Amino acid sequence: MKKWLISLGMLVALSGCGAADDPDEVVQSPTVDEETEAPVTEQEDGEFKIAVIPSQSMGEMQQGLDNLETHLTERLERDVIVEQYPNYNAVVEAINYNHIDLAFLGPLTYLIAHEQSGAKAIITQEVDGSPFYYSYIITHADSEWEDLDDLLEDRAEVDLAFASISSTSGHLIPGLHLRQLGYYESEDKHEFNQIQFAGSHDIVTTLVQDQIVDAGAVDSAILEALMQTDEENDGTLRDDIKVLWQSEQLYQYPWVVPAQTSDTLIEDLQLAFAEIEDEAILRIFGGATRFVEADDSQYADVLEAAREFDMLTLE
Q1: Which domain holds residue 103?
Q2: 87 and 29, same structural domain?
Q3: Whole-model pTM?
């Protein structure tokens, strides 16, 4: 039986929530030197649990996740359960306490888990042959702004949407850039008319396309995948969106295992993912064309940015 953790928080991201229900509340987790709740034992025949965060609306992801579960169950020769978690920090806590075996995380939240418990990046994805993506700040095509400098001249009148506070391309990288320019510190301290966290990249894109907000920060690969899907349905998204700013290249989202995972299991996972050619699976991971091996060193630039923006939880 499928075990889905349905995220009501993602569905009502625009309505806001109280502090106790904040999907981006920082989770206090063990450091690499602290003991976890129970001894870690790698169960080769038990359920293999995978956690993912919806980077798009969940209905668009379910078929691909079903297929991924089936593929890995066959390749690993054990029951595989793919669970959708409500937010990044819930996954960080789960991987830190060894409650899951594999997680698909944004670079920032992977680095938080790596700093706290030694979690390791082992797989990422290529899109059109490249393992890199970008952070974009986008606006509607009808806007008179041609670049970020134009927008910033009118910043006092600009409503700006980020994805999640824990998103690398949807907040950390563009937020740090705006901070370095002196225009943004936090949701409550900035020089814009309004800042909001929409919850996911597709929601940010919709807000910009519908001109509910003036600009938004999104993942370039997810935006391209949304545009391709929209074109298949005779939509106008590609014509409706204008890119005002592009970051330096970022290494794609990693698949992450707990620190104690054996080399044998890591190799098995890397091989199983390398074999994936199912478009339903590849499409939901930023329009990937294939999965490739990754390691911790490839995320050093994001680690530096997270430290500068004080977005790592270190004991």
Answers
A1: 8-127+252-308
A2: yes
A3: 0.75
